[in-house]
Amino acid sequence: MKIPKPTNEDKERFRSLVPDAPEVEVKPMFGNLGAFVNGNMFMGLFGSDVGVRLPEEQRQRVVADGGTAFGPAERPMKDYVSLPAGWTDRRTRTWTRKAHDHVAAMPPKKPKR
């Protein structure tokens, strides 16, 4: 399984799309980036693709508008969808905020021992 590497521009764009909230943490993940709230990832970067974790109905809306599976083709990430690359940053931020709000409502992830 090949994991694409994002460019510096991809990483900068990703960081600019992350909701500005004190509880959000951006961390490196397998050469890419992930944005977390309460220890749960709500947004990720896979190469140049920005993916978000959304409830099923919202994921289907994104797919209907050109979104695709997020992650490696052999093993896409469950509950995540890649946002269409052609979307404006403003529209993308609307969906990254929805992902943040969805995941922030989940119980905090317990740290591994």
Task: Walk me through the structure.
With 113 residues, the chain is an alpha+beta fold. It is built from 3 helices and 6 strands. It has helices at 8-17, 56-64, 89-104, and strands at residues 24-29, 32-37, 40-46, 49-53, 68-69, 80-82. Strands 1-2-3-4-6-5 form a 6-stranded antiparallel sheet. The mean pLDDT is 95.
Task: Summarize this structure briefly.
This protein has 113 residues and is α+β, with helices and mostly antiparallel strands. It contains three helices and six strands.
Would you report the number of β strands? 6
User: Helical region count?
Assistant: 3
Beta fraction = 25-35%
Unreliable runs:
none
Largest sheet: 6 strands, antiparallel
How helical, in percent, are the residues?
25-40%
Order of strands, widest sheet: 1-2-3-4-6-5
What does the average pLDDT come to?
Answer: 95
Distance between the termini: 28 Å
Alpha-beta content class:
alpha+beta
Q: How do the helices and strands follow one another from N- to C-terminus?
A: HEEEEHEEH
Which term fits the overall shape? globular
Helix/strand layout:
Layout: H1 8-17, E1 24-29, E2 32-37, E3 40-46, E4 49-53, H2 56-64, E5 68-69, E6 80-82, H3 89-104
Antiparallel strand pairs: 1-2, 2-3, 3-4, 4-6, 5-6
Keywords:
alpha+beta, six-stranded antiparallel β-sheet, 6 strands
